[in-house]
From TrEMBL:
Record protein name field: Metallophosphoesterase
Location of the Calcineurin-like phosphoesterase domain: 23-188
InterPro entries tied to this protein: Calcineurin-like_PHP, Metallo-depent_PP-like, UPF0046_metallophosphoest
Taxonomic source organism: Amycolatopsis speibonae
Amino acid sequence: MKALVVADEVEERLWTSAVHHHPADLVIGAGDLPYAYLEFLASALDVPCVFVPGNHDPDLSGYTRYGGLSMKDGFPTVWPGPAGGVNADGRIVDIGGLRFAGLGGSVRYNDGPNQWTQRQQARRARRLVRRARFRRWRDGRDVDVLLTHAPPRHCGDREDPPHRGFDCLHRTIESLRPKWLLHGHIHPHGEPVPDRVIGGTTVRNVVGHRIMEFV
């Protein structure tokens, strides 16, 4: 399984036919990218796309699928997300042979969408853990990738309020024990970004793009 993993920064050369130089089986988005960009990548490579929204993305909450239609508040509407993409925020999803647990958004710093206080995100994380445990009870499978927009606190985050990580992700990692936590939100600005390890989980900043192989 090879994945094109993207977040936060549009790479113009990938938004062309040059994307075919990066063959992949899956597109993974960690937030703050135009949904048209994710849609193009998945369509050009003819592969599935799984993502979580970032703090600069439109609010996707409240949308459902019924009879092939996108619905909100009981009425048909156009889903603003990438066509064919799977929003993993707050969900456990199986795509391309991998099990993802998703938590999008950043720490709340204004009234924009996809922002959560530490307490709100902790509640969302506890619900996610319960869903993962139920799925594991049903089929015996663990989570492979914890896909987030913001990183865990004190694990590659920053001290300015918009770029602080979430405290609850440490406990989420401890509960789910995924092999990977992939996040965006923290722009390296040319600096090297080493992987970090929490327990048995590798935490990777995927701002820009990464080609990753999952065994």
